[in-house]
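Fold this complex.
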Amino acid sequence: MKRFFAIIESPLTRAFLVGFIVLSFQTTLFNTLRPFSVVMQVMLLCSAASGVAAGSESGAIAGFMFGFMYDMVLTSPFGLSALVFGFAGYMAGGVNTFAYSPRWWFKMLSIGISSAAAVLIYPAASLVVGVDGLLQARVLGVALTVGLFNAALALPAVFIMRWALVKSKKQMLWAE
Amino acid sequence: MYSFTRRRLIVVLLLTSVLLLTLDRSNSGLVGGVKDAFGVVFRPVERFANVVSRPLSNVWRGVLDYSDMRKENLALKDLLVKQEGAAIAATASVREAQELLALNGLPTLAGIDSVTAQVVGQSPSNFTQTFELNRGKSSGIRVGMTVTNGAGLVGKITGVTLERSVVMLATDPEYAMSVKVGACTRPNTTTTAVPQTTTTLVSDGSTSPVTNVLPTTTTTSTTSTTSTTTTVLQRATTTTIKGFTPFATTLPPVPGGGGVTQITVPETGVLLPRETGAMEGQGIDRLPVIRFIQTSSRLGELCEGVPVVTAGGSQSLAPADLVVGTVSRVVTRTGTSGPLLEVELAANLQSLNFVRVLLYQPATEIPQ
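Structure:
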């Protein structure tokens, strides 16, 4: 029983549950709200927020998991979102370490930049695996919108991901 | 500086992604199975989230889309009035065409079973263009089947679970379909009073029992030298082939002769040759294009507004003559690449609600 609770309380399980709930809102609510005809990417937001909340490595693992879950509901190449979201988590964590003691606006900046970068990388990665036609000028607008939106929601997302991933220093998803 | 464990983590994640991509691209059943299982667990959660978030979605739509919706509603009412009359005439024509095809033992769209399904979801991605339907394997839907609505082609099924299926829209960059496109058309039919016993003078002086049919008007003149009634074409046509008269319809000899019979003859524009090309989606906000059309003297001139229909064939996933849309732009290209045609789809893919899945599989796709 003790072991069961340990598993339930582990950062990986928490992150999975958060991802599961966020995914359900991604495919319903955020699929409807389309500012400038762009779908808001809350799964990507959570991936980047994981990096800021718990560091590059945790961000990479959590991002990979969120991307993997996202791939389950997409028809795009399986594993592509996992790869790109993992990168976004890693990058957000990496950018955040540039500041000695990152302020709130720097966290927003890290998440915005890494989200936009992930949106730009996605069609390029698709091209590599043989899906042609996604790399268009429109991607720049999508990246900008997603980046701004994710930056705007960065702080609550970081708070949630910190709750999920950083229980204590020892029980982090990826202990340094 | 990267530690060994850091590097190992990145390598492991990268390799896992590559493995997943490889499995997916090699059409492994494993990926489909995992997705199906995830769908079973995820669907109730999604339904709950939908109920919770619906008020917010409605507020968003109400605030942003209300004025557009009003304008669209008025425009649609006008359009509906215009279309009602045309639809009745079109239905009669379609029925006639189907009867003729059935009479000649040719396949028709009316003979294909279909399933009506409702669109229940949309892709949350900014890159793929897919919709989710509330019908799946249990209704007979299989991967590859064609999806239409009242207006025309919508897309094809790319994923099926027991109760759900995913439709890739015709505008998706991964979508491709073999289509037919005709040359510029002229007015549809000419009803003309045709004398039953007429003869046409051909170049070598011999006569044949044929009557010429004109595109729009008929001019009758009598040549005094041969004492025959000849129908003269508006355009100059000459022939040196014995027994051949361009644009001619042969009438069966009627015993007794005499009198005038009313016949409706398809106008030549309808019978113009059609060229086959490959239609490919170009992504969101861009029209699909048709490639591999060659300008030839046989096809004639390509112009905007000509209808585009599916080509069909033994290996095509869609049956023949399904309405796709009209050519909206002809892009002339130099060299041997041939022209590029942009297609305005007949179906409005922005506002899909109910669609029809044709339970049609080409012979090559049906398991033996």
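Chain B touches chain A through 51 residues (CB under 8 Å).
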